[in-house]
Amino acid sequence: MYLADRVIVMTSRLGKIKDIIKIELADPRNRGSADFAWYKQRVLVHFFGDEEEKGPEFAI
């Protein structure tokens, strides 16, 4: 995302495109900005899922 204008997320099977994320940040990019963090989180959700959707790791 630091150098890209878009990120293409592909599925693990058959190599299909799952999502295309257009990065709309001004150059040069500040990796410490809130906007950069938002795009980073949006990409990472595709790999690890959303923490709020998972729920707790254990139940008592």
Describe the structure.
The chain is α+β, with helices and mostly antiparallel strands. It has one domain (6-54). The chain is built from two helices and two strands, in the order ββαα. Strands 1-2 form a two-stranded antiparallel ribbon.
Helix content: 25-40%
User: How large is the radius of gyration?
Assistant: 14 Å
The separation of the N and C termini measures 40 Å
Provide the β-strand percentage band: 15-25%
Task: Chart the SSEs and their pairings.
Layout: E1 6-10, E2 17-22, H1 34-48, H2 51-54
Antiparallel strand pairs: 1-2
Keywords:
60 residues, two-stranded antiparallel ribbon, flat
Please outline what is shown here:
By secondary structure, the protein is an alpha+beta fold. It is built from two helices and two strands, in the order E-E-H-H. It has one domain.
